[in-house]
């Protein structure tokens, strides 16, 4: 009772022009203005016993999330990502600020949860709410899981990797050592995709196009054109049930699927010619139909033994390409190929593409990018053997850069032992720290098999996953330094 009396008296003193109601000792008080949020009032209470959030703030600063939050320049990142006024069309204040939206993307990479799972966790964790600078009323939790995808799609169109990495480095540069050492390597951050085969891809095209034809014919009250769809479906199912597929059975089914897809495309063109004003497809359907046309052209050329460039492996994400890696357990991967540089264990994206590229010719760009980022001349380079071509060797010799490349020809007599030791150390760093960072990012920060529906969102998730791992490493180092000072 005493607590409620003090609370209502504080509200009356704080804003006497706003009437409020309540019952104290049976007397009716006026009603407080309905749009005043309790979360806005509580932090301003002058009584220490009412500051319930102070203990949470203290524990947040000591937690891993709080330490990672302290390593992120959220204001600068938000200013670089967006210049729009943060107001909705109805004039309402959004739930997340610009900094909160950036923090939410870091939080998604840190937790590795789905959009719905992230919202559910956010509703129940006050530390996560503090990370995103959005205190949520427990009686009114967020119920719309699509808010995360809406923020992600909006930020993905505004993402400029080079400028954002410059902001991150400016925040982290005082904590980094050995800025004259450049470690570089490339890897493929895979997309969440079933392993594609020609049979699967052609059947997906036929199945989707047949469903579109049936729905449009029903809408137009037109008879569905005849095709061999059901017969091919039975043959495809029988093929899928076989434990081993012979080359002749595979080629036979590919021929049937190509003929069926050709017939379905011609039937669709005929239907569009007759009822073009009445047929309206969504942007997603137009995109899928364009991908199916490209798949038909490519698969027809492949069936004839011709070479095909920019090969499509998914009609849902036609931007993906097969990346031949040559690994023992995984010869081909599907996703974004990224060439990274590493400064004192912190990774930065030098070049990324969904098309396959040769990273061995990009050593000069890696050195120039690190020098522009740090302002320090690179004196040592650690890279894989694919980078050890003659052009890169000549460039490093002219610039006086020590590398970990295996020497060509006999060892000169005047070469010092220190140089050989330095090469071994650089090579070990590349093989352990650089390669280990890829596994750390893929296993713990949601870039192992990226779930995205377009290339912009996939690039954004890739960027935030890599730099969330960086922030976690720097936070752990800061905690170790603080513990050392206390000890």
Structural commentary:
The protein has helices spanning 2-14, 38-41, 53-62, 64-70, 74-81, 98-111, 115-124, 126-131, 146-156, 161-172, 198-220, 229-241, 247-275, 283-303, 363-374, 390-399, 417-444, 455-486, and strands at 21-24, 27-30, 181-191, 322-324, 332-343, 346-353, 380-382, 402-403, 449-450. By secondary structure, it is α/β, with parallel strands linked by helices. Strands 3, 4, 5, 6, 7, 8 and 9 form a 7-stranded mixed β-sheet that branches. The chain has a two-stranded antiparallel sheet with strand order 1-2. Strand 7 (380-382), helix 16 and strand 8 form a beta-alpha-beta unit. Helix 4 (64-70) packs across helix 18 (455-486), helix 5 packs antiparallel against helix 10 and helix 6 (98-111) packs across helix 9. The longest helix is centred in the last third of the chain and has 32 residues, at 455-486.
């Amino acid at each position: 009772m005493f607590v409620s009396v003090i609370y209502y008296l504080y509200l009356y003193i704080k804003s006497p022009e706003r009437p409020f109601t309540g019952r104290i000792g049976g007397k009716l008080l006026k009603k407080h203005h309905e749009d005043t949020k309790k979360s806005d009032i509580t932090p301003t209470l002058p009584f220490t016993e009412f500051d319930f959030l102070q203990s949470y703030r203290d524990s947040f600063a000591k937690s891993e999330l709080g330490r990672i939050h302290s390593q992120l320049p959220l204001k600068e990142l938000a200013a670089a990502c967006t210049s729009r006024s943060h107001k909705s069309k109805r004039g309402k204040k959004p739930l997340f600020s610009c900094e909160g939206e950036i923090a939410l993307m870091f939080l998604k990479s840190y937790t590795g949860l789905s959009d719905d799972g992230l919202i559910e966790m956010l509703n129940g964790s006050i530390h996560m709410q503090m990370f995103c600078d959005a205190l949520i009323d427990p009686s009114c939790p967020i119920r719309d899981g699509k808010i995360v995808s809406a923020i992600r799609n909006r930020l993905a169109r505004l993402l400029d990797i080079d400028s954002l990495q410059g902001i991150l480095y400016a925040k982290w540069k005082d904590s980094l050592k050995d800025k004259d050492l450049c470690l570089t390597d490339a890897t493929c951050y895979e997309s969440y995709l079933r392993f594609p085969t020609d049979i699967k891809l052609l059947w997906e095209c036929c199945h989707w196009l047949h469903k579109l034809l049936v729905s449009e014919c029903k809408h137009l009250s037109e008879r569905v054109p005849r095709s061999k769809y059901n017969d091919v479906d039975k043959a495809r199912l029988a093929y899928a049930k076989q434990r081993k597929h012979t080359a002749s059975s595979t080629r036979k089914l590919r021929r049937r699927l190509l003929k069926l897809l050709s017939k379905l495309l011609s039937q669709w063109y005929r239907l569009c010619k007759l009822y073009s004003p009445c047929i309206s497809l969504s942007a997603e359907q137009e995109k899928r139909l364009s991908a199916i046309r490209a798949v038909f052209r490519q698969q027809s050329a492949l069936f004839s033994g011709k070479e095909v460039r920019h090969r499509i492996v998914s009609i849902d994400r036609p931007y993906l390409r097969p990346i031949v890696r040559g690994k023992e357990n995984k010869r081909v991967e599907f996703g974004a190929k990224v060439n990274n540089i590493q400064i004192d264990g912190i990774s930065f994206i030098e070049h990324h593409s969904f098309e396959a590229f040769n990273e061995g010719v990009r050593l000069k760009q890696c050195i120039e990018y690190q020098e522009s980022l740090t302002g320090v001349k690179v004196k040592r380079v650690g890279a894989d053997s694919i980078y050890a071509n003659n052009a890169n060797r000549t460039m490093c010799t002219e610039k006086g850069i020590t590398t970990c490349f295996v020497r060509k020809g006999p060892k000169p007599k005047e070469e010092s032992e220190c140089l050989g030791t330095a090469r071994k150390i650089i090579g070990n760093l590349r093989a352990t720290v650089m390669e280990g960072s890829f596994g750390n990012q893929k296993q713990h920060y949601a870039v192992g098999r990226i779930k995205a529906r377009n290339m912009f969102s996939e690039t954004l998730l890739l960027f935030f996953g890599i730099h969330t791992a960086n922030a976690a490493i720097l936070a752990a180092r800061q905690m170790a330094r603080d513990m050392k000072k206390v000890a």
